[in-house]
Amino acid sequence: MTFAHRHLLGIEHLAPHDITAILDLAESYVEMNRQPAKHSDVLAGLTQINMFFENSTRTQASFELAGLRLGADVMNMAMQASSVKKGETLIDTALTLNAMRPDLLVVRHPHSGAVDLLAQKVKCAVLNAGDGRHEHPTQALLDALTIRRAKGRLHRLSIAICGDIAHSRVARSNILLLGKMENRIRLIGPPTLIPAGIDEFGVEVFEDMQQGLADVDVVMMLRLQKERMDGGFIPSEREYYHRFGLDAEKLALAKPDAIIMHPGPMNRGVEIDGTLADDINRSVIQDQVEMGVAVRMAAMELLARNLRSGPEGAA
Amino acid sequence: MTVTLFQNARLIDPEADTDAPGHLLVRDGKIDEALPENIEFESMFRARNIAPETVTVIDCNNRYLAPGIVDIGVKVCEPGERHKESYRSAGLAAAAGGVTTIVTRPDTTPAIDTPETLEFVRRRANEAAPVNVLPMAALTKGREGREMTEIGFLMDAGAVAFTDCDHVVSDTRVFSRALTYARSLGALVIAHPQEPGLSRGAAATSGKFASLRGLPAVSPMAERMGLDRDIALIEMTGARYHADQITTARALPALKRAKANGLDITAGIGIHHLTLNEFDVADYRTFFKLKPPLRPESDRQAVIEALQTGLIDIISSMHTPQDEESKRLPFEEAASGAVALETLLPAALRLYHSGQISLNALFRALALNPAKRLGLDSGRLAAGAPADLVLFDANAPFVLDRATLNSKSRNTPFDGARMQGRVLATYVAGQAVYRRE
Known about the structure:
Chain A: Keywords: Pyrimidine biosynthesis, Transferase. Chain A: Heterododecamer (2C3:3R2) of six catalytic PyrB chains organized as two trimers (C3), and six regulatory PyrI chains organized as three dimers (R2). The structure holds two protein chains of two kinds. Chain A has helices spanning 16-33, 58-69, 90-100, 114-121, 137-151, 169-180, 209-213, 226-230, 237-244, 248-251, 274-277, 285-309, 311-314; strands spanning 47-52, 73-78, 104-109, 125-131, 158-162, 184-188, 204-206, 218-221, 259-261. Chain A is α/β, with parallel strands linked by helices. A five-stranded parallel β-sheet of chain A has the order 7-6-5-8-9. Chain A has a four-stranded parallel β-sheet with strand order 2-1-3-4, with helices on both faces. Chain A is globular, with a radius of gyration of 19 Å. Chain A starts with 15 loop residues before the first helix and ends with a helix. The longest helix of chain B is centred in the middle third of the chain and has 17 residues, at 221-237. Chains A and B meet through helix 4 of A and helix 7 of B.
């Protein structure tokens, strides 16, 4: 199994066989993570730095756990509190990091493209943990693994992605990934939250949630961020919930065995009805969190293999 | 009396609409006459009482000789940010690019909005730059869109046009008064047509590419809305108006109507919007971040067509120096703009080599039209016009290396690009200010 990438910056650069490779390896880690002794040494001796320029609890914890279970030395750097405030540029940060000689760098940044920029300047493997509105590749991969396990396949499914598509890196990465795997993608949301030109991505756009959910296999809800309301994208939370919130009535239009997904953290009563989110027969939201650790373990292992087999690793 | 004969040239005269072999006689810094290819030199000199031995002869080797470029909208970073570009470095860059007149922007720090600052700038420019420098002044104080500047005093001090550059005067009342006042003095107002509410924070043109890259984007319609408003104000005030950059297909019908209705309006475009499109940004290359942002290819083709028909009058470099620190940032945070004085002509020649525009039409937009709009005598090869000239090889291929640029800032999107066409020499008032080794 080869994975010919130095970094994991986005789904855009991955081929379907890359995606399958990560998911297949992740399956083995799902099994391992369910054992009492969940530890491997594939990253032993390697240093992983988690650099979050934007608040995150869940993603950072997931990456940290993934690194620890594979035996890496993991360090977290909360970049908001540190030198960024002192005016250090991203390039300076990269140079500083190079001197610390990390092997794996996990980065989240509020600006689209910032992780690409950092990756050009550092010598280690970079994993994008979310950049602006651009991509969040490990989220799309964990969603894919969740779907594949729930539905038994990752192709020819009808998948609805609902909510704030315009500002969502999760949506972008999912559209790219699910498109590459040949699924039918439907985007549902108010027109103010649907990005321009998105129909050219080979998706169908629905402004009416009832129509959009008809006979889908997967309902993927997105988080509605509070600041979107101040920006005048939607009139109010209650109108949004009425038209685009997922409740039992709307879900009834999807296939009877349709699953409900959400990248978290959820706004219960804004984009999703609380009892639906907790419905163990339909909601796979907890599975997504579990798959997240496994997928991140797999991605880091594949990148680390390339690190070791490269000229520096051989020396 | 000094006499120079440019012999064996291929003469481009956009005014006469000619592109033919010939010779150009220059006397005391002014063009005497464009001579036909087969002229008898001895009798020609005799008829003019010129002693042949006093004539400096420049053999042009059948290369193109055209009026020097008049570039409206060059940013020189004095006062304020001389480390980015000084009058000296901008002047050298202009000379190397075949630009004989730079018309400078007032978006410096502080803005050029008083006669005193303008005089400082003119003094600096005349000492340091080998080419003609004509300053523009701000239309409103501090380019803040609240109070008009001393347009009369600034004109006396030498301001050739008034502009707030990329700041839109969003208060329509302030803008209409400034236009009315400028009209009474015959001043030219240059504006950036844009709806500022829509374009706030935008780093790209909305559409598939911006969505894929996750960049905040502005609809191309914002340009048309800005232009529509400005056209209404010109109709209301009768002002002389030039739109700095018309870059979208959507804005063209309005421009066409305004011209047909006899309004005193002209339009420009930056060279990058004629030669690049939004996909050139690729993986967040900030040297391609411009204001307005690069457009889809369909817009680029539409504005090229508008240039062919003369609907768009003027090509500018929109030369905007930025240092590495302000460009080596995530795309949204990076500064906008690109240097272009030295790449303007080779980039413009791409349109000639692709068969989309004749050299005459190109120099009409690069030299004649901007000169006419500013009331200058240059931009043509007619008798009495200043001998501001560019000698170039339209075909010489090269790969641009930004390290070779004269500009202090080297933020060009053309680094490593294959280009065709090189400036061999540049003359201002008959004197060589640049010669390619």
